[in-house]
Each structure stands twice: as C-alpha cells, then as structure tokens.
Specification:
The complex is a heterotrimer of chains A (506), B (369) and C (277). Chain A is 30% helix and 17% strand. Chain A is an alpha/beta fold and 506 residues long. Chain A has two domains: 87 residues, Alpha-Beta Plaits (2-Layer Sandwich), CATH 3.30.70; 276 residues, Alpha-Beta Barrel (TIM Barrel). The longest helix of chain A has 26 residues. Classes of the chains: A alpha/beta (506), B alpha+beta (369), C alpha/beta (277). The interface between A and C is large, with 52 and 54 residues.
Chain lengths: 506, 369, 277
Amino acid sequence: MKFKTHLLPEFIVKRDEDRCTRCKVCVKQCPFGVHSYDEENDRIISREELCVGCQRCVVYCPENALIVEPYPGGYRPNEYWTGEYIRDIKKQSESGGVILTSTGAQRRLKIYWDHILLNASQVTNPSIDPLREPMELRTFLGRKPDALEIEYEGEDVKIKTELYPNLLIETPILFAGMSYGAISYNAFKSLAMAAKEFGTLFNTGEGGLPREMREEFKDCTIVQCASGRFGVDPEYLNSAAAIEIKIGQGAKPGIGGHLPGEKVSADISATRMIPEGTDALSPAPHHDIYSIEDLSMLIYALKEATNYEKPVCVKIAAVHNVAAIASGIVRAGADIVAIDGFRGGTGATPKIMREHVGIPVELALAAVDQRLREERIRHKCSIIVGGGIRCAADVAKAVALGADAVYIGTAALIALGCTMCQRCHTGKCAWGICTQDPKLSKRLNPKVGAQRLVNLLRGWSLELKDVLGGMGINAIESLRGNRDHLRGVGLEEWELEVLGIKGAGE
Amino acid sequence: MRRKIPDKEIQACALFGVMDRSGRRFGGDIAITAIKNMKVRGNGLGGGFAVYGIYPEYKNYYALHIMFQNASREAKAEVEDFLQDNFDVVNAEEIPTNPEANVIDPPLFWRYFVAPQKKGEEKKLSDDDYVVKKVMYINTCIEDAFVFSSGKDMGVFKGVGFPEDIADFFMLDELYKGYIWTAHSRFPTNTPGWWGGAHPFCILDWTVVHNGEISSYGTNRRFLEMYGYYCTLFTDTEVIAYAVDLLMRRQRLPIEIVAEIFASPMWDQVDHMDEKKKNLCMALRMVYAPLLINGPFTIVVAHHGEMFGLTDRIRLRPITAGEKGDLLFVSSEEAAIRAVCEPDRVWTPHGGEPVIGRLNSREGELNEV
Amino acid sequence: MLPVVFRDAFLEGVRKIDELIEHASIEGDVAKIDASRLNHKEVNDLMRECVLKGAKKLILKNVCGQRYIGTRLHLPEGKKVEIEIYGTPGNDLGAFLDGHRIVLHGNAQDGVGNTMNDGEIVVEGRAGDVVAMAMRGGKIFIRDDVGYRTAIHMKQYMDKIPVLVVGGTSQDFLGEYMAGGMVILLGLTLEKLKHRAYYIGTGMHGGVIYLRGEVEKYQLGKEVGVVDMEEEDWKTLEKHVGEFSSYFGYDADEILAEKFMKLLPLTKRPYGRIYTY
C-alpha cells in the first residue's frame, strides 16, 4: 500500500537567487536528487524532503549562493515526545522495518572526556618546551614478558628471553577498522597511504585487503578476521603487520553486519571473495567462538596460521562486563585488546543498537586498565580504545586513563570530507567516502585524502606534545595510566571512582 | 554508600565425567588423564573433581569437606564447636594433601563425618534440609570457613590450578576409588585465585560442573530466590545447581523432564509434535520458563546412582558421549575419551537431549575392584 | 587479594624444536611423527620443521587432541604436502588449510576445515560441530555423521567452489548462512532415510545442498526452497559421490539410486526488506 508520507523535511535549502548563476554544480553534486534545473523558468528547484544536510552543494557552489540548514518548523515542543521519536514512529508506521542509520550514537548522554581536565607543571617541576626538546610519542603495541633475562657472552649482552612480536608506531593513533565495501576504495587507500607515510597502522575492517595493496602496505596494515571471514585466507593473514579478531563494535554491540548485495561490486566481490551482488552477511557471533576458551582457540589458530610472527588483537564493544571480558581475552592469549565505546561509528546499524547498547569508552577503559593491573596482567597486552575520539585532548586523556593508543574512525573520515550527515547506509555519500558508486567515489582523490589524514595526525601529534610538555613529561609512556594528571569536574562520586581520578581541587 | 551488586562470574572450561554403571569403583587416573588432555580449555585458575563411592566405611554419614582460608585456626575452632552443637561427629581428620604439588596458597582442608542432631523446631526438617541449612550457616556466618562438599559417601576436591595439579595436591589417583568421577577445568575471567570458587559445585550429594556463560542468569536467579535459594557465589554453576536441586531433589522430576525445562524445544519444533508431547512441552514452558537456561551451556550433573550430561537447546557448547562396556563417558572433547580408552561407541547428542548414566541396579551393593 | 596466577595453557612447557626432533624420523621425503608426548604447538612446530627439511608426506601417529594440524603449513614457496593422521586430532583440524591433503584414520572433533582455503580433508569416521565453517575452497569428505552448524557460512568465488560430502547425517543448522559452495549429505548412517536436523539452510543465500533421503518442509530454514534435480545435478553428484565412495569403499551407484533433494536459496538477498531508512 502506498501512503502519503507524514514526515516533515529535515532540512531547508535557501538559495540566493541573485547569486545563483544556474551553473548546475549543485545539481551534479547532489546524489540524493535534491536539486534539479527547471528549464522553462530557468531556475533551480530544490526538493528539500530529500536533503540529508551533507553540505556538499554548499561547499561546491562557486557563488556561495546556498545555505542548507535544519528545518525550522516542527511539532509542538515536548521534552518527552521529541521530534525525533515522532519522526521515527511515523517512519516505521509507513515501512514496518527496523530503523537503519549510521555513524555513532548521538544521544544526549554525559561525555566523560568533557568532564576530565588535564594537568600542567607549575614551579615544582618544570614544563618542557616541545618545539625544541625531544618529545617522544613512539609506542609499542603487543605482549611484554614478565622480565627480560640477559646473559653476558664476553662483552656481548645476549637477550635470553624470547620476545613476543610487537608493533611500533610513531604516534599513539591508529585508523580504526573500516572495510572496503563500507567505505570506497579511494577512502580505504587514503587511510593506507596516510598510515604508511606517518608510521602508524590502518585497519582493513572485515572486507579483505585488495591484492594490489598487499605488498606495498603490509607493514602498516592490521587485517581483520571477523565473523564473516570475508577474504580471509592464509595469504591475507600473512600480508599484515597484525591481525585483529573483531568480536564487536561500539555502534552495534552484539549484532552482525550486512553489506547489501547492491554494494557488492566486482572489485568488492574479488576482495571479499564472494560472488557479485550477493549480500555479505556477517553473523552476530563468530560461529567458532561461543565462549572464552573458543576465543583462545581462534587466537592460537591465527598465530598458527602466521607462524607466531604477528600480534593478535581482539576488538570488543564496551559492554557492561567489559573489564572481566578483557581479562579473559588477555588470558586467552590476545596481545592487544581493542575496546570500542558507545559512541563508535559504523557504516550501517539499526538505530536501536547504536543509541541504546553499550557503555561510554572512558568508563570502560578505566575499568579495564584497573582490572588488568589488579590481576597483574596489564603488561601482557596493549589496550587500544576507540569510539568517538574527537581531538588530541581526548587522546591524551585516554592515554592517561590507561590506553596504549587510540583508534580513530569518524575523525579520520571527517578529515576526508565527511560531514556526519549519517547517511552512510544509503551508499550515496556525496563526499565519495561511504559509497561504491564510481561516479561518487572518484570525488575523493587518495593522494589528497592521504595528505589530509597525515595533516590531521601531525596536528594532533603536535598537540599531544604540547600537552606532554606542559606536564613536564617527554615520553608518552610516562603519561600512560598516569591518572594523577587527570581531575574530574561535574562528576558523581561513583564516576570518579570508576575513572580512578580525583575531583578538581582535591 | 555504594550499592553493592556483585559481578557475576564469567567462565568457560572443559568438562569430563565417567561412570561405571555396574557400580564398580575405580581410581582417579581416567578422569585425571582425560581432563589433562584438554588442558588448553582451561587456564590454570581452577580445577576440581567430584567422586562418588569413596567413603564406604562412613556411607551413612554426611562427609563435610571444609576449607579454612589462611589456615585460620579460629575459623576451625568455631566450625568444630558448631559441628559439635549440631551434629554427631564420628570422625574428623585433615584431608591428606601433597605439599610438593604445583599449587599456590592452598587453604587448610579438613573433613568431618557427621550425623544430624536435630533439636526443637528443626526436628521437622528432613536430614537433607537440615544439613543444607547448617552448611549455609557455616558458609555465610563463619569467616574463612567454607564447606565445599556435603554429601554421603562422596566428595568434592577442588582448588586453584590446572586439574591435574589439584589431583596431585589431593593425591586423588592414589587415595580414592569411586564409581562416578566428574572433573572440571576452569577458564574464569572473574574471581581468580579463590579455592572455593573452583568447581564442581556441591549441595548434599548433588554436584554440577558447567561450561559456558548463561545469558538468563538474572531471570533464573531471581526465580530461585522465591524458593529460598540465595546465590552467594554469583556463578552460573550455582544457579544451575540450585535449579537442579529444586526440580530434581525437591520436586522429584526426572532428568528427562528437567532437560525439557532447561533446554526447552523451540516453538517451531513444538508445533510439529504429536498432541501429547506438545501439551507436555507447553505446560512445562508455561510453568517453568523462568528456569529455561538460555545461552551456551554444557553441564554434567551427578548424584548417587546417576550421572548425566546436557547442553543448551541449540548446542552452543560441545559435548561428546562415549561408552565402553559399563563405562559411560561425557566429555567436552572426544580426544579426552580416547586418551583413556578405545570406546565401543562415541556420539554427540542433540542439543537439549541428556546423556544419562544410571546404575544397572540402583539398590545393588557397590563392588570393590 | 590472593596472588593471581597467569598460566598460558597453550604455550606453557612448549619445548624448542631441537628437543622435539627426536619425535620425528625422516626417510626420503616421508616424515613420521610420534605425537604421543607432544602438545598442540609442538606437533605443528615439528610438522613445519619436517616440511622445511624436505618432507612431502607427514605421517602422524598417536594424535590425541592436538589442535590446528596443518594450519602452520602456509609456506612461502607454496609447497603442498600430504598428512596422514592416526588417532583423534583436536579442534580446528586443517583450519586455514592452504592446499594440503589430510587423511585422518579416525574421528575428528569440532572445526574441521575452519576457513579452509584449499586442499582436501578425508575423515574415516565422524566429525563434530562447525565442520567446514567459512570454508572457501577445496574438498572435505567425512565418512560418518557431523554435528551442529555444518558448512556454516561456506562461500565461493569464481572457480573456487568448496565441496563437503558427508556420508552420514547432520545435526541442526546445516548450511546456516551458507553463501556458496556445495554440501552433499548422504544419510548412509540412517536406518530410514529421514534426517533429524532442524533449521537446514537457515539464512542461506548462496551455494547448494544435496540431501539424500528426506526432510520435512518445517525442518528447512525459511530462506531455502526445494527444487527438482536435473541432469547436471546428477552429473555433479556422480563426480563427488564417486570420489567419496572410492575413499570409503562404498558403491556409488547404489548410493545414487536413492532419491535426492536439492536445496537452493530463494534469494541472494534474504534480508533486503527489513530495514527502513
């Protein structure tokens, strides 16, 4: 049955008719079909109900003739039945489906980063000038032995302890797993090129690694082994610096993924090794992991498949028992634990999962770090956190809470052009990022994209150095888990306790 | 003050059970070798055994195995006073242990063979209920003391370590013979380092070993609370043990029925059953749905005369059964069975279908080897 | 709090390769390994060592529970070997297997051929759960029954089409999520040719399942349909059942004389219509 939709538009397009030259750039730029040219009247018409607010047309309008802004109209104000709930109900009453969305949770919930403040030195110990003095961000990721046994052979010192494989990165920031399929080839390539240039790592997500990229990027790639096992074969596993078992992600803990068949193009089908046009379904669990000892089995299967040469990371969503789960993961043999918080992004997720499942990564991180220390196994693994890291201050706070490094996903995509319009799941990304439409994806030039990402990493790294210098610290290791350099404001007693920090002034 | 809601324990593991259905008693090497063969399913943070038929000379007395944390003499004195007041204690001795065993910080272990001395109002209680009540008292009211085995002619031996280390510590292969042995190797993520937290879990002569993390824990626990079970260990195993106690000991339902409660058939399947079976399944689901154990589990439950293994209804945890003559095996892996014998038959039961071992003659005398 | 121990059950006590080498003997290009006192990693260490030393065939005796046999043999030069196993290997036999051939004289546990890439596994017995999970190439032949979730998420690409032939029957969720490849279930261990498994092919969106014998409609997942066997299908079956029979001493013609059901996914897009934007 067809309905007249009851939905209100979300945006309005204001066009300055005096400035508009009918050049039709906006018509060409909009993949959602908002703008069209009316020849008869020589004017551009905009169907606002189609507009997602991605701002592509605004940025590319040569005459600055456009403003796209939220629709000013709306229902009677109601703190409980907000416009969003009304809209969602109407949407479902018209379709009978699960509301699909993308990116990370947007709900109004306390953002702990914003309630934590960093420290600086005054008088009692000197701050350091990061522009002129050495300031070290280099970070190891992987399992460390309990002790290093050495032996003298004449003058030579020999290390007797067998070291576990570790990754070395130049800044404690990595690109989070985003698959080729969820994002375009050019976006994927941009991440790889930037990681290589800056000396960090990018993560393939679960869509495999295109063959032509394997040789060039093998030292800066984390390959993912997720429940769908797409493109996972021994060669793929061996063409990476590390392997990540993806159990869950913050945007949709506990559910699987689903790359719709229309996005499985020839190239994607080759990388994922499934036929063109088939749905790429990622099961909710790994069907060989139904418990912690099964996880151990897969960890060692991957180590066997790669001759114990690569660290194995296990990525989980931050959920209620995260500390206990992380402890189990370390005991199961993982070298790195990655925790993706409540705000973590995605290319597609049911809204109910994105908005209601999981816990904030700040609390999860603090709990995990503390728990692993209490159990005296913190050195057995590194911790990477992700899920809504927005700036270098978030990175510094994460490191001080106990993270070895952070994953950035959304921030990296914003660097590439993303405007958080939350329409990744439509596959029509106007910025050429979350799309497999060749016309759209060619809007992103990997060289330019990589440069933007490198610039972002450089900027954040410089800021991190500033923060470190201010604290009188010249190596990131000395900030790691150093919660003395954090104070809380506007937090309840229990929150301070979980975070393991004092209140400001205390 | 902070509200205190303890964490539930999350753990996984290896299980093994062997029963001689003729009642012949045998040594510990089968169970020890088998569980050791599955070492990688545990992580050395817990191992344990339950053995049936080990105290024939005291078979009419409840055998209480008690651990005293920090070798607490005060706790021991208090427990012994309590036992004297409430039981007739016919024998008390330290449980022999091997000081050379590879275990860390073992508590002090004693065992007491006792008969109930009921007084006043308590005379109305059955012996079993009386013992349960007194055991609960010791476990909740006497600091540093913990009764971890309380059945007749059986015993639980458990602690922190790999199961073979625990067996070595209690010298199980040398000192004991039983007709049922169940064994457990633990991979916990919470509560590491506590000897009482290892498995099997025991009430009277009922023991449970369990693998998996059940997702219905909260529902199951709060339902059991209405029947007077208060979970103090916050483990899945404890909840399952109480559910077994409620349904099998108190309500006298056979395992065949209990299996339909814990692992009730899917509605899809119920819809295609004959009327009689369908009505039974519907009734069980209606009454006992709060005891549906959801999420992955395999359990091996034993009490005198019976041992059974059961998995969840979509078999998210493994189980393999085997037979050789009178011996019945249940195990997390087939190789563990094959590590101890060449079985006549091995099979994997369907999810939710119990593998049951019963004594050929339940009243029959147990035979010495 | 009591001291917390950290013990790695998998790596604890693993010996160095020079201590292990005595458990192997190499004659010509055949290496014999006695696995009776070797743990998981040691068996695989030793297998890799033997292959690097030139062995083309590995004979493993007294295997009891050791995992991942064959997994470590992803060799740079792409050398392929044959592995013969006596005993009961542990889980993940031939996981990620990269073109080698494994013959097992006995039963297998869970995870046979997990995410296998290429090669062949022949099991002269039964196998446990999740056989051929996420398998993407090669062949697996199991003489007897298999457990739950067999061939889950098996997939194919171009000419890489994995094949699983099971002589017996399967438990529930056979072919769940199946995205490609072929499963042939022969029911030879059944007295009457009626399979018990429920949820066959649930979520299936690629590949094909051939069932010898019968299942009721309600035993099938809602995403699969039964279609008529055609000439091509019989030819395919002749090939794979023929191979199966030659390994285990069956008469292929006799097997093929029975009725077969062919199960295909109804759509490549089973969940296209449950979302709203």
